[in-house]
From TrEMBL:
SUPFAM superfamilies: Bet v1-like (SSF55961). PROSITE patterns: START. It comes from the Eukaryota. Residues 106-306 form the START domain. This is StAR-related lipid transfer protein 4. It comes from Patagioenas fasciata monilis. Pfam families: START (PF01852). One of its GO terms (cellular component) is endoplasmic reticulum. InterPro entries: StarD4 (IPR042555), START-like_dom_sf (IPR023393), START_lipid-bd_dom (IPR002913). One of its GO terms (biological process) is cholesterol import. One of its GO terms (molecular function) is cholesterol transfer activity. PANTHER family: STAR-RELATED LIPID TRANSFER PROTEIN 4.
Amino acid sequence: MHVGQPVTVKLSCIGTVPMTLAKPRGSYACEALDENGKSHCISTWWTIPTSNLKAQFQRTEAQPYVFLEDDEERCRQCRLRGSRRWRRVKAAGGKQMDLLPNSAPLATKLRNTLIQYHSIGDNEWRVVKKTKDATVWHKPSEEFSGYLYKAQGVVEDVTNRIVDHIRPGPYRLDWDSLMTTMDIIETFEENCCVMRYTTAGQLWNIIAPREFVDFSYTTSYEDGLLTCGISLDYGEVRPNCVRGFNHPCGWFCVPLKDYPSHSLLTGYIQTELRGLLPQSAVDTAMSSTLTSFYSDLKKALKHKPTVT
């Protein structure tokens, strides 16, 4: 690639556009001029010489697709062969979005963080709500200015089935009254995935619907399971939603020693709802959401046949 070289840029809407490379913009980007003299920032990863038009329609490891940075839909759909990551680039002059993370180190770090939360002494927690289904505590979070919440209750079912209803999958939308949509964006090995989901408005819509993009990981823990997650800054926010952020969170589910058909379910949640919200509203919503989570889950488990 060199300044003044003619290239062809592929657009999802109108096909290919001839351009001329003008000047570099970092290691893998450059400024290019179209036939009208308009300047565009393009990635040199996806540019090809005009003399090789046939190659622009071939999807290969080196040249999967060619597009402008302001071609959002093509950027969202582009996927590198041989990799389970998507590359997206924002409009010219904007922020380049990260690739989806390497799942293995993120999963390990997430698991260790949750185990650390699980070892926090009882004297550091303050009870904020208690119902027949669960007890909720909180303590100041070390991740942001809000709280880390702990919820715990006994659920009458085996661990595998409980976790199947909690982690991303076909059951969650059926019973979780807070969750309104859920899409699996990407799946990895070792029970990892990235999901996008939305939640309903709360407290008479004082808290508007939220959207989250979370990395999720499910693994064994002692005699039971741990399913955990953390939010990613990835993708465009849906209309009429505020993008929230889940700092490390998760659910430990272990069988009771004397009653193996019952499980102790312990959750750690620290959700940054974002937006202009009174802290009292956030605190009320979080504690109510967690106790409702247990009651809704128990109802769902009773209405389906037990699988051991």
